[in-house]
Design goal:
Blueprint: H1 2-11, H2 13-18, H3 23-26, H4 29-53, E1 87-89, E2 96-98, E3 129-132, E4 135-138, E5 154-156, H5 160-175, E6 180-187, H6 193-213, E7 224-231, E8 235-242, H7 245-253, H8 265-276, E9 288-294, H9 305-314, E10 318-324, E11 332-338, E12 345-352, H10 384-392, E13 397-401, H11 424-432, H12 435-446, E14 458-459, H13 465-494, H14 505-538, E15 549-555, H15 565-582, H16 587-596, E16 601-607, H17 617-625
Parallel strand pairs: 5-13, 6-7, 6-9, 9-10, 10-13
Antiparallel strand pairs: 1-2, 3-4, 7-8, 11-12, 14-15, 15-16
Helix pairs in contact: 5-6, 6-7, 8-9, 9-10, 12-13, 12-14, 13-14, 14-15, 14-16, 15-16
Length: 639
């Protein structure tokens, strides 16, 4: 024991001094025990920290495709041979610890944090995938420095018309400080054509409302001036400072369409502030400047967020944003676009709408069975970078557009779930100090890849060769899903005992939903394999003469051979029900309820499925003999 303490003294003299001198001579029996344990814990922490530091990572939100085994080589007869138990018992614990591999973490996963970006700029959180054996683990976040929150964040305005009154109120508040210059900066991309036209029709109402609210007539005699700027890849002043509403409307309507698909939003903010923050009229009278950005995307130059914030605050310019709701836990959304010239409709074009947080904090896992997939949910808040730009400059992000056909959530009812609009330095510190939050981000990253949807649940007669081939194809699908789910469960299961220490409602919901959904999918994959293995072994015949198809349908019974499968299934249900009960009216509750919609087990039923209609043979022959000339491909617009 003394040899061990002497080595610790030599290796960690700071620890020795902290404990009051050399451990080997000053620690009594109890002190020795405490000292050894503290020393060992310190060593474990240092080992974890060192390993993490060696993983020189960069923090970003991205889609990843992990390297996985070649599932095509899996034999069908191995379909129900689990490679690891679903549950093991933790040491010194009478309750089972549910895990994808049945292990407990020996210590916290300490992150390595570094400043990234150019000129202190912040990007979305980036992770690098580090593989340890077959375990895919993201390294820790690297986040840049920033300042503290000042503004109020997002506010729901309903639509552009609904934002008119609120914008007018904010302008009148600026007028109370003195002469005011309002600069409207309009995103010139094609996705915002309709919104620009709509706002041009209502801009006169804004200024009429200002007149009504301006009891002291501070806007008269040049007290209120307005400029209009259009921006995309570049910027253009459409209307120099003026008091004439007609010129303002004409400037908005004249914003040229930018077809590059690039929105340099934050560079525009910096340039507008530098140009107008010391504005004086022809008589030399100074003006306070406020900037209103109208856009429906995050922007493509988020690395300049810090520069935009610093420039606006130095110039004392408040930045307001009229924008779309961010997508809950997603970066990219989809929208339909009608070309204003050709009137051709383009469907599902990609647009960057989120996420609402610094980085992706939720898993991306398709649901099985019929029903809403909830791929796109409005978060009820603006995207992180734009919301923080407004917040840090004492402005407001007005949520003026909600996704058509998407479920939306009122930010007023979700205040306690609002994202961390803190500085990225504050965010990384919160993550660094919380193994649970680290695990959430790791699981979220692992699932951000192109996972297949549910496997086919209909099969031909078990007596024919097509049955075995169809089963093998779907086994590959399930194996691909199961592989990713098991990897995501590793960090999540390792911190299960820390769940009740988390105080944030948002992170509690994150953890419970992620663990519940991953466990539910783990059981579904296991049950699918078990049901297929049983069918292969028994090869039953149809009882009904009209039947031609075997179908797998949801069932309550858990039939897998692993005796702990039922325990895991009950734990998944418990977690998901807790999300529904504890977080009603939130995206987390909606996703948990969707997962609970169908039981986790399977059973076989026979059915009659009409064959697909065949193409008329003569029509097929004619088509083959005279193939149509391919049409010239239409260039897809960039939004």
């Amino acid at each position: 024991m003394r040899d061990l303490l002497r080595r610790l003294d030599d290796r960690y003299p700071t620890l020795s001094r902290w404990m009051g001198g050399r451990l080997e001579v000053q620690a009594p029996a109890v002190g020795v025990s405490v000292g050894v344990h503290l020393a060992l814990l310190t060593m474990l922490g240092l080992v974890t920290y060192t390993a993490s530091k060696e993983a020189k990572s960069e923090l970003t939100s991205q889609m990843v495709d992990s390297k996985i085994p070649d599932f095509r080589n899996i034999e069908v007869q191995d379909i129900d041979k689990p490679d690891a138990p679903l549950v093991t018992k933790a040491a010194a614990s009478s309750a089972p610890t549910i895990s994808s591999i049945g292990v407990e973490a020996s210590g916290p996963m300490a992150p390595t944090v570094q400043t990234s970006g150019t000129n202190g700029a912040v990007a979305l959180a980036k992770f690098e995938i580090k593989r340890t054996g077959d375990v895919m683990m993201p390294s820790a976040p690297q986040l840049s420095q920033s300042v503290s929150i000042r503004g109020t964040g997002s506010e729901s305005a309903g639509d552009v018309e609904g934002a008119v009154d609120r914008v007018a109120i904010e302008i009148v508040r600026q007028l109370e400080r003195g002469r005011t210059l309002v600069v409207w900066a309009f995103d010139a991309s094609g996705s915002l054509v309709a919104e620009r036209e709509k706002l041009a029709k209502h801009i006169e109402s804004v200024y009429k409302h200002i007149k009504e609210l301006d009891k002291d007539q501070k806007s008269d005699e040049g007290g209120l001036l307005t400029a209009v700027v259009g921006f995309g890849q570049d910027r253009k002043i459409m209307t120099p400072p003026t008091a004439d509403p007609a010129e303002i409307i004409a400037g908005i309507k004249a914003v040229p369409l930018d077809t590059t698909g690039v929105e340099n939003t934050f560079a525009t903010v910096s340039e507008v502030v530098r140009k107008y923050n010391r504005f004086k009229d022809d008589k030399g009278k100074p003006y306070h400047t406020m900037l209103i950005v109208v856009t429906d995307e995050v922007g493509d130059d988020e690395t300049r967020l810090e520069e935009a914030i610093a420039t606006a605050r130095a110039g004392k310019v408040q930045v307001y944003v009229l924008g779309s709701s961010a997508l809950f836990g997603r970066i990219e959304g989809r929208m339909n676009y009608t070309d204003p010239k050709t009137k051709q409709v383009f469907y599902n074009l990609p647009v960057r709408l989120g996420p609402e947080s610094v980085t992706l904090e939720t898993i991306h896992l398709p649901f099985w069975y019929d029903g809403p997939q909830y791929d796109y949910l409005d978060a009820g808040f603006g995207p992180y970078a734009l919301t923080r730009l407004a917040t840090e400059t004492s402005g407001i992000y007005f949520v003026t557009r909600l996704g058509p056909g998407r479920v939306s959530f009122d930010p007023n009812s979700m205040r306690e779930y609002r994202p961390d609009w803190m500085s990225t330095n504050g965010y990384q510190q919160a993550i660094k100090n919380s193994p649970l939050r680290q695990a959430v981000l790791q699981a979220a990253l692992i699932t951000q890849q192109s996972l297949p949807g549910q496997p086919a649940l209909s099969f031909p007669s078990a007596e024919g060769p097509e049955f075995k081939e169809a089963m093998k194809e779907n086994q590959i699908v399930v194996a691909r899903i199961e592989y990713t789910v098991k990897e995501a469960l590793i960090p999540i299961s390792a911190v299960s005992k820390l769940r009740d220490r988390e105080t944030s409602r948002r992170w509690q919901a994150h953890y419970d939903l992620i663990r519940g959904r991953l466990l539910a999918m783990r059981i579904r994959c296991n049950e699918f394999n078990s049901a297929c293995a049983k069918m292969l072994k028994d090869q039953p015949k149809f009882k009904n003469p009209g039947s031609n198809t075997w179908k797998l349908v949801p069932a309550e019974d858990i039939n897998a051979r692993d005796p702990q499968a039922k325990i895991v299934a009950e734990e998944a249900k418990r977690l998901l029900k807790r999300v529904v009960d504890d977080h009603p009216g939130t995206p987390w509750a909606m996703l948990a309820q969707r997962e609970l919609k169908d039981p986790f087990g399977f059973k076989w039923v026979e059915a009659n499925v009409p064959p697909r209609p065949k193409m008329n043979e003569m029509a097929a022959a004619k088509k083959k003999a005279a193939p149509a000339m391919p049409a010239k491909p239409v260039e897809v617009p960039k939004l």
